[in-house]
Each structure stands twice: as C-alpha cells, then as structure tokens.
C-alpha cells in the first residue's frame, strides 16, 4: 500500500492547538484514511486500530474509511507525534535521505503495510 503523509484539517495548525478541548471535540486524535475497497478486502471497519509499518518503523492509528484516497493508498494524519509518539510519522519515513538544496526529505509518500491490531 502507498502511504501518504500530510493529512491536515482546519482544526489545527501543524502540531499546534491539539491541546484545546473544544478543538479536540471536533477531531479526537490521529487517523488514517483508507478507501472502502481496501477496508472491505482487509476486513477493517471504521475506527479499527491498525499498525502501519515501513522498513523504518511503525505507528498505531485508528481507521477512517473514506473515498478521499484511491484504492491501494492510505493518507495518514500529520502533526500528532507531539501528543503521542505512536502517531509520529517520523517513525515511518527516512529522514536521513534529504534533498541537498532544500534539506527536506525526498518524498511524502512511501510503501507501507497495514495490519489490524488484535481485538
């Protein structure tokens, strides 16, 4: 599956304001968007906790089933690592390989595997 980092909402600015109760009522933590077809194939329901793995590491997130992504891809919430290290996208991406001019990581997408956490 192709993982895409950077899902943002209007409720927060990057990792800021995630300690404000009224904003947290609108969005209760980090999520990963997967397409309904992928959810059906993997028998994953809305809110299921999944482990997202890459060769670099893993994170644990709740699923949001949505057509905002194409089948075969997963969009991962961004900026939640300060609240919980289990949500940090830095666990998944290779920050050692950077563009020599800009100093930024080479890509915001990566190959990953999703597995359901045991119930």
Q: Main traits of this protein?
A:
119 residues, mainly beta, Barwin-like endoglucanases, globular
Report on the structure:
The protein has a seven-stranded mixed beta sheet with strand order 6-1-5-2-4-3-7. The chain has one domain (2-116): Beta Barrel (Barwin-like endoglucanases). Helix content is 11%, strand content 29%. The two termini are 23 Å apart. The longest helix has 7 residues, at 36-42. It is mainly beta and 119 residues long. It has two helices and seven strands, in the order βαβαβββββ. The protein is globular. It has helices at 21-26, 36-42, and strands at residues 2-7, 31-34, 49-53, 58-65, 73-77, 109-111, 113-116.
Residue stretches low in confidence (pLDDT < 50, at least 5 long) are none
Say how many strands there are.
7
CATH class: Mainly Beta
Mean pLDDT rating: 80
Q: Could you give a quick summary of the protein structure above?
A:
The protein has 119 residues and is mainly beta. The protein is 11% helix and 29% strand.
List the helices and strands and how they pair.
Blueprint: E1 2-7, H1 21-26, E2 31-34, H2 36-42, E3 49-53, E4 58-65, E5 73-77, E6 109-111, E7 113-116
Parallel strand pairs: 1-5, 2-4
Antiparallel strand pairs: 1-6, 2-5, 3-4, 3-7
